[in-house]
Here is the input.
Amino acid sequence: MNITVLELTDDKVRMVIVGQGHTFLNALTTELLQDSDVDVANYLVEFQFSDPVLTVTTQNNADPVETVRKACKRISDACADLLVQLEKSV
Here is the structure.
């Protein structure tokens, strides 16, 4: 997955996530919004075949890039847990 950072400040990051679509970005923004340090998490797909631009703003001096990284880790952990449960049930 290629990422291009368009804007980065102490409390905001805008990044293009190449090759991803609504499926991943919906999961990521939903997970980000569960974090109390996240003020805004949204994405925009400007054209049908363009890559999405994710925007995250934070509060309480939270690093926006680290916040995105932690949200991705929580999604990954949830998927790993699901795989373990599937293995147990089969």
